[in-house]
Amino acid sequence: MEGSNDWSSFPPDLLFLITNYLTLYEFIIFGSVCVSWRNIYNQKLKKVHNNNGFIRGWRQMPWLVLPLSSSNNTSKQFITHEFYSPSDGKTFHIDLPLVNLDWFTCIGSSSGELIIADPYSRMCILNPLTRARVCISSFGVSMPHRATKCYDRGIIVAFTLNTLFKVSMQPMQGTSKLLRVLDCHIWDIIFYKGRVYALVGNGRLLVVNLCDGNGEAEVELVAEGINDSLLPLARLYLVESSGELLQVVKFRDEEGTITFNLYKFDETNKQWQREFYLGEHALFLNSRLSMSVSASGVCGMRRNCIYFIEPTKSFSSEIKVFNMMDKVTQLYCKFNKFEPIWMMPSLS
Question: Is pLDDT larger for residue 70 or for residue 82?
Fold first, then answer.
């Protein structure tokens, strides 16, 4: 093979062995070399699906989904989107099937999938790397603020302002159902330990008991709100971290300084307890998506920190990092794109 540029002549068994030692970024490039390498790529994907998406070296920081620019090429079948990996500063251009993420708004993310919706009540669940998707033609509700996927029930629970509703994940079926209209603002929702929780008002935690019939869902108060001086001007989030349910309070003072307070849900005593450390984990917050990721063994990721996205007056964005130990915020990177979205890439 000396002097040959025929990449397709590599033995398939050797190529498959090589994929065991590639990072996710390298694996994506591997699949674009030629047809024969793409076939190995697809074979590996099938194996990954049967192994819960795990491959050596794929533990990493979340990616950022960047809005389209005017220079993006489109075709009748695909639209090219940019995905940015903050840990290594690399940008990926991925063709997504008939989904314009500028027109659609991402309202949730789970296990590498994006939950997206548009103003015409259409919804789609999409894995950008595998291109697997489920489209719901019309769910009959105005643009949701956020959504969470309930794996064992085949539904999505979403909310707008003070209203909860659920949407069937059956392809091309518009089967939305009003769950409950609350008397307070909904900050966030999460699917945690098989149940749907909603964070409302001054940090009260509700559990939404989903029913199979057409009646209104029962909502139970499981924890009273928090007594935090930051609350009047705060933004609240729900995040699962190391099996614990956390409430994150983000506050900006008059000078623009940002502070975060953490509270852990005590399931035994049904109350919020103040937390001061994240340990080996880091949080990634966004108005649409939030997640916790272990920083152990991940190059470039800072433990015990909160990564968050700040829009600027020039319609660009800054990624900042708040250190829970010294309470100092540092600039991580900048984008000339407005409000990118966190996503944890997965091939499962």
Answer: 82
Phi, psi angle pair for 38, to nearest 5°: -65, -35
Contact call for residues 151 and 191 (beta carbons, < 8 A): yes
Percent of the chain at pLDDT exceeding 90 = 22
Q: Which two tokens stand for residue 296?
A: 């152990």
The sign one gets for the Cα dihedral 47, 124, 81, 112 is negative
- Give the rounded percent of residues in the chain with a pLDDT score beyond 70: 76
Assess whether pLDDT exceeds 80 at residue 175: no
Q: CB of 8 within 8 A of CB of 36?
A: yes
3-state helix, strand, coil in the chain (%, to 5): 10, 45, 45
Is the pLDDT assigned to residue 230 strictly greater than 80?
no
Give 220: exposed, middle or buried? Use CB within 10 Å, 0-12, 13-18, 19+. Answer: exposed
Cα separation of 110 and 126, whole Å?
10
Is the pLDDT at 245 greater than 50? The verdict is yes
Query: Both tokens of residue 148?
Result: 């969470």
Hey, how many other C-beta atoms are within 10 angstroms of the C-beta on 53?
16
The arrangement of strands across the sheet holding 155-160 comes to 146-150, 155-160, 163-168, 176-181
CA torsion sign for 86, 125, 98, 30 is: positive
Exposed e or buried b per residue across 301-319, where buried means at least 16 C-beta atoms within 10 angstroms of its C-beta:
bbbbbbbbbbeeeeeebeb
Tell me if 108 sits within 8 A of 115, measured CB to CB.
yes
Residue 244 confidence (pLDDT): 95
- 246 against 101, higher pLDDT: 246
Q: Which residues, 6 or more positions from 299, have their beta carbon under 8 angstroms from its beta carbon?
A: 87, 88
